[in-house]
Amino acid sequence: MRRSTRLAVFAATLAVLALVPFVVPGYPTTLATEMLIFATLAMSIDILSGFAGRTPLCHGAIFGVSTYVLLYYVTVANGNVWVGAALGIAAATLTAMIFALLAVRTSGVYFLLLTLALGMVVWGVCLRWTSVTGGENGIRGTVRPAWLGNARVLYYFILVVTSAMTAAMWRFVRSPFGLTLAGIRESETRMRALGYDVPLHLFLAFTVSGFFAGLAGVLYAFFNSFVSPSTVGLEQSVEGLLMALVGGVGTLFGGLVGAAIIISLENLVSAYTERWMMALGLLFIFTMIFAPSGVLGRVREALAGNGKPRT
Amino acid sequence: MTLAAIQVLNGLTFAALLFLVASGFTLIFGLMRIVNLAHGALYLMGGYIALSTAMESGSFALAIAAAAAAIALAGFLVDRFLLGFVKGHELRQVLLTLGIALCLNDLALVIWGGDTFTVPVPEALRGAWSFAGISYPRYRLFVLAVGVVVFVLLWLLVNRTRLGALIRAGVDDAETVEAIGIDIKRVFVGTFMLGAALAGVGGALGGAFLSLYPTADSEILVFSLAVVIIGGRGSLWGAAVGSLFVAMLATYGQVWFPELAYFVIFGPMALLLAFRPLGLFGRAA
């Protein structure tokens, strides 16, 4: 896609998103807010799965650590919300760094398994460490400042933050560093032979990805005012990864498309039945069998091959 | 002294249960390169099926048999009709099994609801056994015995039979096995069913002492993952040693650091992985 076309698509997307609170106020705006938050999470996952070629199943945990820290700091320790937000992001980034130290030596399925296990550790700690995390009951409390109390203002605040973060992630994956990651995804041995420090690159990519996931977690604390072990659980990681997959791995903006599809679907399905988990599972199965490259992946293939999908 | 012995027995019996579940997981992983994330869901399903069978018929043996048969059938269907679509794509296979896990869990929630159940055990296995001043639940000793028997049977199967030779050959080089005229697909299906059946039996036995509830599947899955990561892919000894290791850490972790029990299990696992990425008994693919 040419630069000018891409800018036009960006501008159009942003314009549509900016109009949401006027066109569909009320509940749909709340949904759109949630969608933006999860789009940030899905894009942070795509940094690893799409660009570094390492599919993680622990981002729900990294995301939720930041939500937990912010809610704890503000409601239990009575701290300042912005300090709490900074601490939350720092905690998420630190968690990602620890995970990265352990996981960068593995790849493929092993990476997936190890990150799954590491994410479950966080879940186990949040569930059992009742004196701090409140166990099953979680932590409840409004953390957003009073000026963000209005749903419309909150939406715009989150739109501004996620747009800035998306731009930052886009710059990151298109930077020489991001291209090195793509090189590692394509051929690790070749990059090593060229003199690149592969584990270091993966470590940094994981850390950056964790930073953005932590940021999404802070926004989620603003939005949801509640955190419980299910926020850091496997389902959260799975849902985030599915958003990245449905949108298209390696496209970055696929995260936005995937989050829009899955959150709309979740609401649609939940309106009729309680079987959302089953629907999510079926969606996973169908995506893997019929559309592994995702929506934007398909679009990109179509553009690249004049309508014919690339093989 | 008595307390220490009971702790050791708790660890050993939990290890036996873990081995049942993890050995199926590692067999499938080792031979077919499929990480079956639905393994925990199959365990839970097996447990629920055993529960319903035991309630209806009153027979514990029948309950175990029903769980094994039903889950083996489920394994057959998954392997035949779903995994076939994504042959050769490791990551897509894993994510597909994750989708299956979500569906199965929700199905279990529809059928059996969200309450906690315990599979009823027969009179002969209830109560405690006293020996040298220690009394210990009979049922847990029974699970320990089953674990040992299954280990011996699997060892004999893998090391002393033609099927075992095919499995071992397939773990090392599936293509060559196929090239010399053996229908490796049938070996694959058989292994998948065997691995699934082990999960089913694990669910039936585990359902009587760990009890069954909606998140039990991911807990047992994570324990199995730890076992396989520690033991190494496809190794029976690895699964046995890994089960002992994880079960002991889990048992003592719960006593010493109840709030951080998970750290105690996964800390050493992570440390081991830093030095041996393929696990204790793992070999490069």
Please give a structural write-up.
The complex is a heterodimer of chains A (311) and B (285). Chain A contains 14 helices and 2 strands, in the order H-H-H-H-H-H-E-H-H-H-H-E-H-H-H-H. Chain A has 311 residues and is mostly helical. Chain A has a two-stranded antiparallel ribbon. The two termini of chain A are 19 Å apart. The model of chain A is unreliable at 307-311 (pLDDT under 50). Chain B is mainly alpha-helical and 285 residues long. Chain B has one domain (2-216). Classes of the chains: A mainly alpha (311), B mainly alpha (285). The interface between A and B is large, with 40 and 43 residues.
Strand content of chain A: under 5%
Rounded mean pLDDT of chain B is 87
Q: Helix tally of chain B?
A: 10
Instruction: List the strand order in the largest sheet of chain A.
Output: 1-2
Per-chain topology:
The complex is a heterodimer of chains A (311) and B (285).
Chain A: H1 3-23, H2 27-51, H3 59-76, H4 81-103, H5 108-128, H6 130-133, E1 139-140, H7 151-174, H8 176-186, H9 188-193, H10 198-224, E2 226-227, H11 234-247, H12 254-272, H13 276-290, H14 294-304
Antiparallel strand pairs in A: 1-2
Helix pairs in contact in A: 1-7, 2-7, 2-10, 2-11, 2-12, 3-4, 3-5, 3-10, 4-10, 7-10, 8-10, 11-12, 11-14
Chain B: H1 2-32, H2 39-57, H3 60-82, H4 90-112, E1 128-131, E2 134-137, H5 138-160, H6 162-179, H7 184-209, H8 216-231, H9 236-256, H10 261-275
Antiparallel strand pairs in B: 1-2
Key structural traits:
heterodimer; A: 311 residues; mainly alpha; two-stranded antiparallel ribbon; 2 strands; globular; disordered C terminus; B: mainly alpha
Summary, kept brief:
The complex is a heterodimer of chains A (311) and B (285). By secondary structure, chain A is mostly helical. Chain A is 77% helix and 1% strand.
